[in-house]
Predict the structure.
Amino acid sequence: MSEDSSISEETNTPTTSVSQDTSTAETTAITTSAFNIHPETPSSSSSFNTHLAIQSLSSILTTVSPSLLSQDQDPAFYLLHNPDISSQVSSLLRLPDSGAGDNNLCRWFYDTFQSSEPQLQLVVLRFLPVIAGLYLSRVALKKPLAGFEAVLLAIYAHETTSRAGQAVTVNVPDLSYPSIYHESRRPAKDNDAADLNLAVISPSLEPHGTVRSTRRARIVGVALELYYSKISLMPVGSKIDFCEFCKVWSGQEGHELQDDEDNVEFQDNQGNADKESVITEGRIALPWELLQPVSRILGHCLLGPTRDEELIGSASAACRSLYSRSLHDINPHAILATRSLLRLSKMALDPKNNVDHTEIPMSDVISL
Amino acid sequence: MLGSQSSDSIEYEDQTPSREVWANGVCMKTSEVEAKLDEGNIQEAESSLREGLSLNFEEARALLGRLEYQRGNVEAALHVFDGIDLPAAIQRLQPSFSEKQPSRKGRSRGDSQHAVSQHAASLVLEAIYLKAKSLQKLGRLNDAAHECKRVLDAVEKIFHQGIPDVQVDNRLQDTVCQAVELLPELWKQAGCYHEAMSAYRRALLSQWNLGDDNCSRIQKAFAVFLMHSGVEAGPPSLAAQVDGSYVPKHNLEEAILLLMILVRKFYLGKIVWDPSILEHLTFALSLCGQTSVLAKELEEIMPGVFHRVDRWNTLALCYSTVGQNKAALNLLRKSLHKHEQPDDLTALLLAAKICSEDSHLAAEGVGYAQRAISNAQGRNEHLKGVAIRMLGLCSGKQATISPSDFERSRLQSEALKSLDAAMSLEKNNPDLLFELGMLYAEQRNLNTALRYAKRFIDATGGSLLKGWRLLALILSAQHRFSEAEVVIDAALDETAKWEQGPLLRLKAKLKTSQSLPMGAIETYRYLLALVQAQRKSFGPLRSVSQVGGDGVNEYEVWHGLADLYSRLSHWKDMEVCLGKAKELKPYSAEVLYTEGVMLQGRGQAEEAMSAYITALLVDPSFVPCKILIGALLSKRDSNALPVARSILSDALKIEPTSRMAWYYLGIIHRVDGRIADAADCFQAASMLEEFDPIENFSSIL
């Protein structure tokens, strides 16, 4: 199954890249309409695909009935946001043998993602936290994982083709040269000098037909990069799943920052022995290629524009666990990233920093 | 926000009598008007204001709206504002301003007229602004954003060339600034992220005459939004791109640029210090691995902004991230000085870790680790295992350069004890398995080492190359070459081709050890092809930022080949390979050593000797050279024997498991007639013969 994935991806290059374009266009459509209006179905073939996907899902789940098809609502949108479906899919995924190559649900994920239907791909990405979380935690347990691997490879291959394998780089600005936001006495800089501060935030991608164990973290990391790029479309439940797995991956109870001792309100209350055993099970190696997308996603959950109490709570718990883990690894890079996230999330909750400057001064004397 | 508003209004109700309105030099208590408003009688309230203060309809409405807004009756305020025909009012304002705009000099003449029309404008714009605020409080965010946008559109229509500094009424300017700040916030709250992006850019790229605080708040909010919204902003419009100035390509770049500008504004004294700016910048720059840029920013911050120890410690983290461990350690030494913060656990652990990687610093590291252990208490108790582990690593490293055998074995057993203790505290940390495996391997306790190496591979799911390499080396030390080759082949299956270099090199060496030169040459040939392919497909980018320890190292290929030919005594081929290796690394003890071997093989003993001595000048602790110098000297007359003996003892001090050193030392003892000593040495050599790995264990790290 995993062999198939790479081959079909490589031969289908042009079609997939086209579908990528349309996907970004639709992304815009959805963000503007927020969550109240569902986007128009782009074409009949896509709605056909969607119906096909729902039909095959209904044979796996008990709550999805084909009667959905007659509903007025956009079915792909329904799949993405329906809590019953997601809870049932999640619990099926969490069964001990769910990652096997012949697992129906994994096959459904694989086929659905391969349909190249942006809306349906979002549905697959919605469950990426659970898939990746279980997958990485189960590697050391020697459980069957071919099904999970096929899904992850399909997502990796999609990202590889849409990026044409290219690295993502960032040009760190140099303030001694003028920019659109500031002036400087020095003349504009030559293009040659511009490469000096070039930083690679995601190295170039090679096609992978199977998951080689040394590339495992990278493959999952790239899948998470794709997840991050669509994160504004993901339901809160999916992000909370992700935060929960961060805690499992870290293998650590969350500990407070050293520098503020007075703040105890965040301490985990449920730190019982039962949880401890769960945590020691799923601990994984956290190289930067994995930790970087993880940090970006957590950054969005903690500091992004949608302020959801539950999400922020579980994201800061995840962040504390990862910070604690970075101390255990004495990994300076991870310490810097997770510590600044933790400090920022604290500052964001401080009422002192939440003064509304757009409010007019309230005085008793109103003058014209 | 709504909550605080309502509590405010309760407060106001308690002190209602004190509220009053001023207009046209007349003052009026509002209690009467408010009573009328409470009855829902807007018209009457309006007319009493108009009469009392001699106002026109719009002015009265605007005042009423503001009054209702302040009282917290946003719905009523909205109702009042709806009564004003705002588009018409804006229309009326336009010509009067655009005509006067060019005549900046004739200010005194048109001053009063200006004041009047600016006043009217300010009134209208404030009314629209308050309408937007009211809508926001009612949760009608989209409508609010549209109203707020109308304020800005109106301002742009009224002031074609941007807002002039001198001529503007303060109140008008305040309203404009607030509207500029509010608009992106509204779009954000409404979930319209793309509109929010363009509103932010409009705020920052047009001329609004914003104050420093105002502008900085918007810049910070935009940077945060760019970093964390998860929506790609796309490049700024072409109109904003001034020729030759830097235009950020995507979100992260734009956010970093804005944050850097904010830090600079602080240096220049334009804004007060906001610690969150630095944290945002820290996060952004560590995401792209540019912590050296962050270090530069931190160094530029004036003293007194934050505690120097915090600065040193954060700088140490930055430098250590980019591999500048020396600089990091120097900073940590300062911050851990007894007059600073000697008990900071993170700093102690980082210092110990840096020291554990260098045998000459290991003793210092032991000290840090011990301090860390005694400080890992209370809420930091969970770090005790880490501190003990660092103690073990530092002791193990210290043992490698210890001057006496006694000291060495003491340190080694201490290292083992610590790592075992750490293991019981950090059960789920696979790194410890690897470190124990390494330690046992270096002590040639190969069976135990083998067990740990296997457990490490299981625990990490084979995801780390160093586990495979350790296992193969241990097997090779046990002379189980074919099994080692199976391990290497398995590892090759789990590796993408660019990371296969070190494995293939091991494989070639395994073939060499098994006296399969053709297989070895085949492997080296494949490695060279890989080097070529790597050069082609990655270009300069790869070599600058990514190559690290992962890539195929061309130098090592040529050197390995030279070594292989030297075993076969193919001196000509060896010379060619050595020349290639030398081109890549001209001053390497290893190359000079191999060159010496070649010269010796060709019978040029004097030249060989000088090559060895040069190699020792490059690296004074390069053991193979010491051994061969000792061997050469032992063949000379008896005057040279004491020198040979001392240089071999020296070699054994650095590497007590060197079989050849023991062997040549035995020969010297025999020549000198100390037969018993000679026998001991030969015995040591013969015992060690079984345990030599094909490559030094420390090459894995």
User: Anything to note?
Assistant: Residues 168-202 of chain A form one domain. The CA atoms of residues 224 and 293 of chain A lie 6 Å apart. Chain A has 15 helices and three strands. Residues 1-42, 260-279 of chain A have pLDDT under 50 and may be disordered.
